[in-house]
Design a protein that fits this description.
Blueprint lengths: L9 E5 L2 E5 L4 H18 L5 H7 L1 E4 L2 E3 L1 H8 L1
Antiparallel strand pairs: 1-2, 1-3, 3-4
Helix pairs in contact: 1-3
Length: about 80
């Protein structure tokens, strides 16, 4: 995996809806991703936590990561 450069402004994408996140460091990344997941759970009332976790993608300058890859990056 390519290295993500921090701080950055990027996007969380779920069901063609974009939520902007601004992680300042790898440690801050999980907090920003949690905000995105909470937003999508509220925006799509039919969505479950598992559904969002499985289908959300995070865009980092052409590098698209799923939730598990983001968790590994933040560890």
């Amino acid at each position: 995996m390519r290295k993500i450069t921090y701080p950055c402004e990027t996007a969380a994408i779920f069901n063609d809806v974009v939520f902007v996140i601004r992680p300042n460091s790898a440690e801050d990344l999980m907090e920003e991703c949690d905000k995105a997941e909470t937003f999508f759970l509220n925006f799509f009332p039919y969505a479950t936590h598992e559904n969002v976790f499985d289908e959300i993608r995070y865009s980092f300058g052409g590098l698209y990561l799923n939730s598990l890859e983001v968790y590994r990056e933040s560890a």
